[in-house]
Amino acid sequence: MTTVIIVSNAISFELRRMTQQAIDSCNETSNANIIVLEGTKTVFERCKTYNYDFPFNYNRCLNFGYQIAPSDIYVFCNNDLNFQEDWLFYLEEALQHYDSVSPMCPIAHKNKTGVYEGYGIGKEFSGWCYAMTDKAMKKLGLFPEFVNFWYSDNATADKLREKGLKHALICNSVVVHLGSQTLKKMPRIEQYKLTVKQKEIYKSK
């Protein structure tokens, strides 16, 4: 069984629509179970919605989803995604050889083909979508929560490396990342707290 965990904070109609479109494209291209961790009271269709009541922390949402949804494979996702045909098939296939894998995005990984091993953020490790086996998750433990949003992927990639878990970018698997749509809707002070401030916290570790 594969479970897709989507983090959402749908504070506007446009963001609610975007999250639902991600859910719909996931349903249309896979047979995975889908759960959404939602920061508002919105309940989405064609998935199981959990409305969390703790202060927003990206990795805390992922940890919460992991703890409530026992599965063989987990896919951890943003809500600003469009899943393409057979994306999950190729990730599941790659997880026979790797502990953690990411799909490619035609926007971020232009003209790339094949498999790229490594932990580079935005290169091999796509923090907006990555899959892991339950065995790898048990070895990893929970995702680091010392940053709230930006640099959550850096902290996760660092921990993968520390635990000796192999990660790779799988270019046969295609998921389009639309790019920080929720962040752009937030007040500037909130954007600062979730971006520049998180960089300072990460760099201080």
Q: How many beta strands in the DSSP annotation?
A: 9
Assign the CATH topology: Spore Coat Polysaccharide Biosynthesis Protein SpsA, Chain A
Compute the CA-based radius of gyration. Answer: 16 Å
What helical percentage do the residues reach? 25-40%
Which regions are unreliable across 5 or more consecutive residues at pLDDT < 50?
189-194
Specify the number of helices.
8
Secondary-structure content class: alpha/beta
How would you characterize this protein structure?
With 205 residues, this protein is of the alpha/beta class. It is built from 8 helices and 9 strands. Strands 1, 2, 3, 4, 5, 6, 7, 8 and 9 form a 9-stranded mixed β-sheet that branches. Helix 1 (13-29) links the parallel strand 1 and strand 2. The longest helix is centred in the first third of the chain and has 17 residues, at 13-29. It starts with a strand and ends with a helix. Residues 189-194 have low confidence and may be disordered.
